[in-house]
Write a structure and sequence with these properties.
The protein is an alpha+beta fold and about 550 residues long. It is built from 21 helices and ten strands. Helix 8 crosses helix 9 and helix 13 packs antiparallel against helix 14.
């Protein structure tokens, strides 16, 4: 009685005795008998086998344990990854499947494949023989298939029969279960369902859903359903209603940016022009009222910014041009006398903003006054410095006015008169021995650079040359000319002649520029009415001093 329960553990130990069993001599008494000797658990013994057929136990698969363990471990991980893949394939198709109760069943059934396939593999390893035959099945060999089969059927049923339903969408909407209904609606929308039943159920669901939502959230919720353009007219009307309510709320809270954004959205969505124009008219009227209030407080700059935000003046209850003209006139009055561009620009904008007689008269009076003032500058008399200063100021003001009143013939004529008078005044003057104003006018505003008080560097000179003007009591008293590498290279006579012509209007005589001798010498010379001193070293011209030059 103890042999059969112990058989499974005894068989591996009896394998080496198989050849002995086959060669054992049988002793026949009342029945055929075979004696099998064995050693088990450290003890020796024997078994008496009785019967008529003594075929040996079929050979079993006796591969090492690690091979079987590796096979079972591989099946475990493959089935586990497969379960994760199946669960993801079901839940990640759409939000509907991820939140559906069947997602849990798919996950549970997919995990059931792990022990099911493991048991099936263990049974196959036990039954497999080296000769390719298989042992007969026992009751436990059916556990693996019995577990994996129902799991496979459950997963297949979930993939085949779990679908969003129009009927379920209508039922959930009527029952007030809008979160579950949203899953069906979004899934059917994603599948491209355009049936009449779905369109009616979807529109009913969306209208019921937005009742619980904020205005902005409701508009964003409607957007995905409107994109299909299939039976979306009721939804588009709801969206227009929501945007209209938002514009009214933004206007009541003085949020112009929000109102503008909603009006732009309504225009882009093809809302009726009458609706958009009506809302924009309310916005423009509000801006006009704000502009009036700001003008009454004297805040003309804020009023101008507010009135300039009016995009369609024709929709406003009154034209904003008159208010803008008043605001620009106030800006012109606030500009100081020195801010010529500010006044001119403000008066011009005031005249252009609207049909306001006061603005046009103020602009004409300002223009006439400035033209007369510039004409007086053309006829200015007095010393050269005073006259040049007046002409320069007049020319600057004329340029400012022409930048505002482009192409004005009278202003252009006055500016040309100022330039002609300046040229006539400077015709017989040279920078050396003249006031600083004359020098700046002759050399240009960027022709001089002050190095230190009383010493100016001339910029436009021949290459490799340094030229400095010495000024005392407002007059240029002398000029110093030398090479950039003073003491290491000679001063070119051509460069000196160019500087002399530029600053004194004359050139040196040839004999003054031909010095043959050794050592250091300063040779006196004359340049028109100016005394000059030429510095020579070893027969090379080093420097030149014209007039009074400070050490």
């Amino acid at each position: 009685m103890g042999f059969f329960p112990a058989r499974a553990s005894l068989e591996p130990g009896l394998e080496p005795l198989r050849t002995r069993v086959l060669s054992q001599r049988l002793e026949v008494f009342e029945a055929p008998v075979a004696t099998v000797h064995y050693a088990f658990a450290g003890k020796k013994g024997f078994l008496k086998l009785l019967g008529s057929g003594f075929r040996p136990t079929p050979v079993r698969d006796t591969r090492p344990f690690r091979h079987r363990f590796a096979c079972l471990l591989g099946v475990f991980f493959v089935s586990l990854f497969g379960a994760v893949f199946l669960t993801g394939a079901f839940t990640e198709r759409q939000l509907f499947y991820g939140r559906h109760p069947a997602a849990g069943l798919v996950a549970l059934a997919s995990l059931g494949f792990v022990p099911g396939f493991g048991l099936m593999t263990a049974s196959w390893l036990r039954r497999r023989r080296p000769d390719g035959s298989m042992l007969a099945k026992r009751w436990q060999d059916r556990l693996g298939f019995g577990l994996a089969g129902p799991c496979a059927l459950a997963v297949l049923a979930c993939f085949l029969f779990v679908r969003p339903s129009v009927q379920e969408l209508s039922r959930l909407t009527a029952a007030g279960q809008l979160e579950q209904a949203e899953l069906h609606a979004s899934a059917l929308q994603g599948e491209g369902n355009t049936s009449a039943a779905f369109i009616d159920a979807r529109n009913a669901f969306v209208r019921a859903r937005i009742l619980e939502m904020d205005n902005r959230d409701a508009v964003r919720f409607i957007e995905p359903y409107v994109r299909t353009k299939e039976g979306t007219e009721p939804l588009e009307a709801e969206r227009r209603r929501l945007r209209e309510a938002w514009v009214a709320k933004a206007l009541s809270q003085n949020e112009e940016a929000e109102a503008e954004k909603e009006l732009t959205a309504l225009t882009d969505e093809g809302a009726p022009a009458a609706l958009v124009d009506g809302l924009r008219a309310r916005l423009e009227d509000q801006r006009i009222e704000q502009g009036k209030a700001l003008l009454a407080k004297g805040e003309e700059e804020e009023a101008i910014r507010t009135l300039l935000r009016i995009r369609t003046p024709g929709l406003a209850s009154e034209p904003p041009g008159l208010l803008l003209s008043q605001a620009y006139l106030l800006r012109a009055q606030a500009c100081s006398v020195q801010e010529l561009h500010c006044r001119a620009q403000a008066l011009k904008l005031a005249a252009e903003a609207g049909p306001m007689e006061a603005a046009r008269n103020a602009l004409a009076a300002f223009r006439s006054e400035e033209i007369n003032r510039l004409a007086k500058a053309v006829r200015a008399s007095g010393g050269v410095s005073h006259t040049l200063r007046a002409l320069q100021e007049g020319e600057r003001d004329a340029g400012i006015l022409l930048s505002v009143f482009e192409g004005d013939a009278e202003l252009t004529g006055v500016r040309e008169g100022l330039l002609r008078r300046r040229e006539e005044l400077l015709r017989k003057h040279w920078p050396l021995g003249e006031p600083v104003e004359v020098v700046q006018a002759l050399l240009g505003p960027s022709g001089l650079e002050e190095r230190r008080p009383g010493v100016f560097a001339v910029r436009q000179v021949p290459p490799g040359t340094l030229v400095h003007l010495f000024v005392s009591q407002g007059l240029t008293r002398g000029v110093h000319v030398t090479a950039r590498e003073h003491g290491r290279e000679a001063l070119a006579t051509e460069a000196l002649q160019q500087v002399a012509q530029l600053l004194a209007g004359k050139t040196f005589a040839a004999k003054d520029l031909a010095r043959a001798g050794k050592g250091v010498a300063h040779v006196p010379a004359r340049l028109g009415g100016h005394v000059a001193l030429l510095g020579w070293q070893d027969g090379m011209l080093v420097e030149a001093l014209l007039g009074k030059v400070e050490p």
